[in-house]
Design brief:
The protein is α/β, with parallel strands linked by helices. It has a single domain, classed as Rossmann fold, CATH 3.40.50.720. Helices cover about 45% and strands about 15% of the residues. The chain contains 9 helices and 7 strands; from the N terminus they run E-H-E-H-E-H-E-H-E-H-E-H-H-H-H-E. Strands 3-2-1-4-5-6-7 form a 7-stranded parallel β-sheet, sandwiched between helices. The longest helix is centred in the middle third of the chain and has 23 residues, at about 100-125. It is globular, with a radius of gyration of 17 Å. It comes from Sinomonas cellulolyticus. InterPro entries: KR_dom, NAD(P)-bd_dom_sf, Sc_DH/Rdtase_CS, SDR_fam. It holds the Pfam family adh_short_C2. Keywords: Oxidoreductase.
């Protein structure tokens, strides 16, 4: 990607989004960090980056007007987006009997519809080269009480293949992590238990930096022959779920 172009990372203040943003900045990329709520987290990203390498934009991706506003802001700032990483996601573990349809739609709005709308809008600028969407091994291996999340990630997989076919030569791929190490997993003893990690062939949760390395690879020229692929980054966890 040229020195004049940027990579847009949605959900840049989340665990994965922040890790990807920091990694791309260390690799010398210019990044646009989109976030929904945490202004303090966005400021932390900004303070750790060179002023000319990172810009932040607040956008509510549950709302079509918020998505349109993000695109309008990119145009207003004359930002050339050559890469797009959709790391924005709502994680919901409500059981079906308790999950209201409004919440189900909200999860799909962020995890799927926003990914589609942003990729579609950016592709019309004729600058976009590569898209990486965030899926999950949960798209194939559903757990109890995660119907909205797993449904959304199954849709992300289908969206990846469809966009790859229709938007070529723009490359569209997805990464499907297992359980990513975060403050949330540290609060849940089960994720650090030997019983849980013994189910993972490589013996540990997914390191956000290792996940970021795969995202960066898929964005770059080294992956120039890859499109429509769902790349599992799970330490082999899904092998034990077959």
């Amino acid at each position: 990607m040229s020195d004049e172009s940027h990579i847009l990372v949605s959900g840049a203040t989340g665990v994965v989004g922040a890790a990807v943003t920091r990694y791309l900045l260390r690799r010398g990329h210019r990044v646009i960090a989109s976030y929904a709520h945490s202004a303090s987290a966005a400021e932390a990203l900004q303070s750790a980056a060179r002023p000319d390498c990172l810009e932040t934009i607040r956008a509510d991706l549950t709302d079509p007007h918020g998505i349109a506003g993000l695109i309008d802001e990119l145009d207003a700032r004359e930002i050339r987006v050559a890469g797009f990483v959709h790391a924005a996601a709502l994680v919901d573990h409500t059981a079906t009997v308790d999950l209201e349809p409004v919440r189900f739609a909200e999860v799909l709005a962020v995890n799927v519809t926003a990914a589609y709308a942003l990729a579609r809008a950016l592709s019309t600028r004729r600058i976009l080269k590569s898209v990486v969407l965030l899926s999950s091994i949960g798209s194939e291996f559903a757990g109890l009480g995660s119907v909205a999340y797993t449904t959304s990630k199954g849709a992300v997989d289908a969206l990846t293949r469809s966009l790859a076919s229709e938007l070529a030569p723009v490359r569209v791929n997805a990464v499907a992590p297992g359980v990513v190490r975060s403050h949330r997993t540290s609060e849940e003893p089960i994720f650090s238990s030997s019983e849980f990690t013994s189910r993972i062939p490589l013996g540990d949760l997914v390191d956000p930096i290792a996940l970021s390395e795969v995202v960066a690879f898929l964005l770059g020229p080294e992956a120039r022959a890859m499109t429509g692929q769902i790349v599992r980054v799970d330490g082999g966890h899904s092998l034990r779920l077959l």
